[in-house]
Design a protein that fits this description.
Arc Repressor Mutant, subunit A, 22 helices, 11 strands, globular
Length: about 550
């Protein structure tokens, strides 16, 4: 874990959970596994606040816990999970993906589960149904069955999964463990092998749709009693908690990146063929697999969308084109005698990461430097004179560009001596690009960039805090007046409480904040590609 990762984790924890949780979380990330007393003493935080902060961190899977180094009976120790904290940056993308695939209901389900860390199915369905009912026209209500259907689809496609059961060693010292720890915690992602019921829906009984909101709106005692009674009803899924399966979302993001790359490199039909192959293997392929499941041309042909009316011979031609393409996104399965096709996931990620590196070099140092960078990636090792000749760049300019790339650690210099004395006159100096270390370097730059963007956004918000609070108060007054049926003159009078210069300043601030948010999301896309590529190299 690097300093840039810890800095970014601290900013994300502070923004979402507050300063106390950020202090405890950052301390765990820096200090490693520690028990409750040690955390309280080293952070100078009251014990009850430490317990509450740990409850929040465990609830959201940011911290895991287990028996201490001395084995069973020793105080429970807590460990921060840097990778899980960094996933907070991707929450908007998860929610938007759920909305794209499963509509508003799927969006709210994923949003609720992300906000709470983990929830039971019954609580999720009730909360989402109430939110949707509140947004509907008067007199209409969202049926529980519709929300249950969306929840079931998310589980069926593995976007939601059951939380793993807490290990017995983790609950060996209940006096040192907050009460929330006895609920399931997202310590490690469950798999079908480790938890057979990972994607099994429990039998849930939900009643009373539509009455709950009206009784709470009345403000009468009987309504309150009825609501309490409904909350205490047994739904049949007590103790079964669900969490968002981040690996499944990442698999979907990876597939979309591959499909977009094929579409831009070849054409829309080729991308649709690759999309079909990925869709057929999305649930059966593990996140770290190098290839998708082998598929025959007949299976692919039968699974193509109906609106793609291409004949079987044309499909065979497209498959041959994809297999022969230098990007090697699609290949033939070696175990099946050549009649089965697979998507080469690791090769695709390597090519996407390579294109990202080339794009960064071109944006920062110009097209000629990018030409040299691409040349070194392709030829592996070249002397300076060879770089000048192959890239067709004058010697002085090529030398300056190579030294600039070398100073930024984007290019490496390898010495190969001809004699044991390493004399410079008898040594070959070869320039090369190591893609994996360069990707790691760029990833750290991305973490630093996102942290700077968050700090800038927090600074802008703090500098204009009074103006933002005034705007929120006026918006609240306008909303209450509109609800009570106020006259247009009254609304205009309230709106004029914000002067023209203030309104202009507000617009500029919102534009600036939106730009920073958009930039964060764009940098996170680069982070995702680089992280996926680095992880794929570890699993080879």
């Amino acid at each position: 874990m690097t300093a840039q990762e810890v800095r970014l984790c601290g900013l994300l924890l502070q923004e979402h959970f507050g300063e106390v949780v950020e202090r405890i979380g950052t301390h765990l990330l820096r200090g490693g596994a520690q028990n409750l007393r040690t955390i309280a003493n080293e952070t100078n935080t009251p014990l009850d606040l430490v317990k509450k902060s740990l409850c929040v961190l465990v609830q959201h899977g940011v911290c895991d816990f287990g028996s201490g180094r001395r084995g069973p009976g020793s105080p429970v120790e807590y460990r921060g999970n840097c990778e899980r904290v960094l996933r907070i940056l991707r929450y908007p993308r998860y929610i938007y993906t759920a909305k794209t695939l499963y509509g508003d209901t799927g969006e709210l389900i994923v949003e609720e589960v992300l906000q709470r860390g983990h929830m039971t199915m019954s609580n999720t369905v009730k909360t989402v149904a109430d939110r949707l009912t509140h947004n509907m026209e008067e007199g209409r209500s969202m049926e529980y069955s519709e929300v249950v259907s969306s929840f079931s689809k998310l589980v069926e496609t593995h976007f939601l999964q059951r939380c793993p059961p807490v290990a017995e060693t983790a609950t060996a010292a209940p006096s040192a463990t907050p009460a929330t720890h006895r609920t399931p915690a997202s310590v490690t992602p469950p798999t079908a092998e480790s938890n057979p019921d990972c994607y099994k829906l429990p039998p849930v009984t939900l009643t009373g749709r539509g009455k709950r909101r009206r009784s709470s709106d009345d403000g009468e005692e009987p309504g309150g009693v009825k609501k309490a009674k409904m909350d205490s009803e047994s739904c049949g899924d007590e103790g079964i908690y669900w969490q968002v399966n981040f690996e499944r979302f990442h698999q979907h993001f990876r597939d979309q990146a591959i499909i977009s790359a094929v579409a831009s490199k070849l054409d829309q039909t080729s991308s649709e063929i690759v999309r079909t192959m990925l869709r057929m293997s999305e649930v059966t392929t593990t996140p770290t697999a190098a290839y998708t499941q082998p598929l025959s041309a007949n299976e692919i042909f039968r699974s193509l969308p109906p609106n793609y009316s291409i004949s079987r011979p044309i499909l065979d031609q497209y498959l041959s084109l994809l297999v022969d393409d230098p990007m090697e996104f699609v290949g033939k399965s070696g175990d099946s005698g050549g009649g089965m096709y697979v998507v080469n996931l690791h090769r695709a990620l390597a090519n996407l990461a390579r294109a990202t590196l080339e794009s960064v070099v071109q944006e920062r140092f110009g097209s000629r430097s990018a030409r040299i960078f691409r040349l070194l990636l392709r030829k592996r090792h070249l002397e300076q004179k060879q770089v000048e000749d192959f890239a067709m760049i004058p010697a002085k300019e090529a030398k300056d560009m190579l030294y600039t790339l070398l100073s930024e650690n984007l290019v490496q210099l390898q010495e190969i001596p001809k004699t044991p004395d390493h004399a410079p006159s008898r040594t070959f100096y070869l320039y090369t690009v190591n893609q994996l270390p360069t990707a790691r370097l760029l990833l750290q730059h991305c973490y630093k960039t996102v942290a700077n963007l968050i700090e800038r956004r927090l600074f802008e918000t703090k500098e204009n805090k009074r103006l933002l609070e005034k705007s929120q108060r006026i918006e609240a007054i306008l909303a209450s007046l509109q609800a009570s049926g106020a006259e247009p003159e009254q609304l205009t009078e309230v709106e004029e409480m914000i002067t023209a210069p203030e309104r202009q300043q507000l617009e500029a601030l919102r534009h600036h904040i939106n730009k920073l948010d958009s930039t964060e999301n764009q940098v996170d896309e680069t982070i995702f590609l680089l992280e996926s590529y680095i992880i794929s190299t570890k699993s080879k």
